[in-house]
Here is the input.
Amino acid sequence: MFSKVGSVLVIGGGIAGIQASLDLADSGYFVYLIEKASFIGGKTAQLDKTYPLNDCSFCIRSDKHMECISHTNIKILTLSEVKDIKGSSGDFEATIIQHPRYVDIDKCTNCGLCAERCPEEVNDEFNEGLGKRKVIYLEFPEAAPNSYVIDRKNCLHFTEAGCNICKEACMEKAIDFDQKEQNISLNVGSIIFAAGFDSIIPPYYDYDKLPNVITSMEFERIHSLNGPYGGHLVRPSDRKEPSNIAWLQCIGSRDIYHNYCSSVCCMYAIKQAILARRSNKMLNATIFFMDMRVCGKDHERYYNHAKNEDNIRFVRSKVHNVFPVSGTDDLLIRYADEQGNIYEEIFNMVVLSLGLEPSHDAVRLAGNLGITLDKNNFVETSSFTPVNTSIPGIYVCGAFNAPKDISESITEASAAACASSLNAVSKVALPEPFEVTEQKPVPAGLIIGGGVTGMVSGLCLADQGYKVYLVEKTNKLGGHALKLRKTFKGEDVKSYIKELIDKVENHPLIDVCLNSEVKHTDGYAGNFSTRIAISSSTETKNIKHGVTIISTGADFLRTSEYLYGKNSRVLIWFHTDKILSEEPNTIEKANTWVFILCVGSREPERPYCSKICCSSALRNAMELKKLNPDMEIYVLYRDMRTYGLIEDLYTEARDKGIVFIRYKLDGKPEVEEDQDGKLMVRVKDNLLGEDLIIQPDFVTLQTAIVPGNNENLAKLFKLPVDQDGFLKEAHKKFKPVEFTAKGIYFAGLVHSPKPIDEAISQAQAAAAKAVTVLSREYISTNTEVASIDLKLCVACLTCARICPAGALIINGMGKPYIEPQKCFGCGICAVECPVKAISLEHFNNDLILTECEAFL
Amino acid sequence: MQYPSNIRIVKVPCIGTIGAIHILKALENGADGVCLVGCSEGKCEYSSGNYRARKRVQYVKNLLGKLSIEKERLEIYNISAGEARKFCEVAREVTETVRSLGPIPLKTKAISNSKEE
Amino acid sequence: MIVGQQKDFDEIKKMISGYNRILVLGCQTCVAISFAGGMREVEILASMIRMDRKMAGQDIEIVEDATLRQCDFEFLDSVENRVDNCDAVLSLACGVGVQALAERYPDKVILPGLNTTFMGLTEKMGVWSERCAGCGNCILDKTGGLCPIARCSKGLFNGPCGGSMDGKCEISPDVDCVWQLIIDRLTALNQLEKLEEIFPIKDWDVSGHGGTRKIVREDLTA
Here is the structure.
């Protein structure tokens, strides 16, 4: 029963695992999704709302869950663990243990009678132990699969022989104590680790003794409508509304045990503070932090808003102790500011912003399999193959790869789906698509932009057998990455790009169009038609393609600050790369080098973080130091944003004696030159409170990444542009590489500034999405669309009059036609049709009727 | 948090897909009451499904009146997918209303009438 | 099209009392479009009847069906078995359909489930209004395309009565005075002088006052 050679095993049913499964299943692969818990959704399911939209996104999340549950190409095994994996790429043998649920999913109606009668109560893990649940329980009302489960180790039936109360209470006879643990053997072609993270309660801050010191996840549960306090923001000790709350950052991150940044805590702490202030307008919210690392798309804006509009107080300080205030349940925090002045403050509640550790179970399993892990136990991957583990055929995505947020996990999940599908797995049939047209999708992709992102997307598609048209504006492939030397991990970018260009140019299915631009485009998912103009000639070229991927990248700021353009020793980041590659003598002779960060970024006119500048400066500083150990290097920064695993580079740089000086936006460094052109940098040292004067040989400016000419692109493809000028995705959190329009995707820096590894995983993700369109036998819409039985239709126009999508048009023959690209699949026309001529393929009227009739 | 065990849930993509016939069939086949639950007012994914459903409920209430079946057996609520707690409250409320009305006359009358014969 | 409206349920109840096997037969053309007699309404009515009978402790067997067009004999053949097997047919067609059915099945009790109300159009979803009275002698050329026979409450032929107030008819502020509309439209068309013509006395013979109407086209008959 459980054997489908060439299918994919996805380990972990969190948001990443779900996304990877969906993308694979939608591209025609069979997926086994293994989840330890009784429900899918993982940690994301526990979250109240998500940043930066502050919405619950519940509808989108639960859509994904339901899609996963009902997908004919996905077999979900909950309460399951992977015991062992043998074999090699293309032919793995996985042994799964599935623990019994003791409740028949198909029979359980979620009535809850069993739980009501169940005599035994235990701590509710889903609510982080803040509430109680019965031993037979539903984790949360919207859990998928939506069925109760029995917690064997606490169940009186097992512990004290023979309690049958729940079984007797169940009217549907869904409870079965005889279910046994099952050993399941699966033969799969490739494996994706989407195992996620664990958060470890730190052994400090007296978390276990002080009830009002809570973890960030506890805060999520407290604030959740379906949480233990019904969404009422109260503290655990006395259930009173706190009037001031402190968030302590970097708990379990950036310490001696975790030499990495957990990437997500700054943003979620801000989110929690905003939500807390919305629940209680009088609340004082304070966030104690070291560096504010809000580098993602729209994150800086979110931070600014929190600071300026939501009146959240940000204190730059690492808090080391929390003390109880005797006679109250309050907490005292003692902290030092940057100048070393000590303050004491009392808070009603303290939230510990816990970091992310790689899932402990997965670390054990990966270790047994021989997958190379880094020193923090995250899976070691290359920047150029960001989802490949050290074992061919085994891939990784999400927080098990490196700490990352939901949208990045989703991107990586799609990337892993793309990479794993290249791994010689056999295809299965897709669920019968609804044949609105009998048209097959054009098996070709148009990729606009021949940088690394575009080339990676192109290769992904071409390697899966689709024709690719790669349109590049300039006369060569490679884009801005040609200027780069090394990744933050130290990998050689130049040889990677050379190899990449080589592969692209020699791929029989890739048609590279240099000096070309898109002039016009038309059509819909599966069938686009685009006109390309070649700048050197008057000729245009028409291309038919099924999907479009936009990867036009971004540009860099040509600043006029800091004497740039006036003094030849004031450089932009890539000049440093060039000197490092070509001018060892210059480096040898240089005594002092200054890097200035945030040039043009995080300023009122450009309120976003360019994300790559910190790591690029540090990488180059380290390289300079290596070539000339005596060189004095100063890095002038505002917040050191070495998020995720880049933190290591920061630690290393400090160890090597590189000097870091923080400056503020209102106290920018000044760069001057004397008559001989010698440079002088003046910066206020916040620690000493004094001006520091440096006389460097060179100053490198880490200038902002700015959007390219996206307005034009947006007009051409009818796409939205965000406030910063980058293209805007369908949903910031859950649909990072998609637009609302189907069949068109985007990746790389045209989305937002990002380093090469993230651009590559986006490129793969966009390709994965593209394949879900191209692999269809017939062009169909993603939603189910209504269909009309024209034999019954009397052309009464009711459907055309009421269709909320405007998808119903009456053709010249007086018969209605449903435009599949517009139809939502809501079914309103079906229910109103007076002659019952309309039905929804997967959800027809009769089906509902049957359900409505099944009462007696 | 739970809803009464005597509730049966029929899942639909949009509450707008529920027509008069579905409500009637449920009652005809043994349900003592029917409660439609749709998205919040103005927040229909499909733009107007919940609004249409509300009007349709009024229509069916009139039909029930003609059958001398209590109109209170049919209700519609707007609850978003995230408001499980509200859903449970509504479910309890609806169950209470229906319970206080007793079994649908369809069952009781049928029994008493057949006894009379 | 013909617009119908379902009869009050009590009336239908009385009509069908005593019959225990009923065919509820809709018509999928005009009355379907006016949401009175299509398959959708057949199902709803059938369900109501069943519930009503159940409450009365009486058995009833209902067959639900609809013909494509009940006013054509050919379309009535397909339900022959069903008609044969019931005590009575409750037709949700217009009066034409009901009669066609009665004619086609002379031995069967045929009952009308709806009132044939008028010839009209769908103003918008859920709203229908009368447009034509079928008078047999069209004068729309003279009245700007608006019919005073069908749409004037008094059927006046030579201008509005004294009850026309602010463009509304005196019977209800919701009803437009068609004469106001006629005048407005002719003004807009610059054809107001058309109203200066005295209409000759209308021949009402062709409107049914001269007996049941019938049309025969010799070229088409067999």
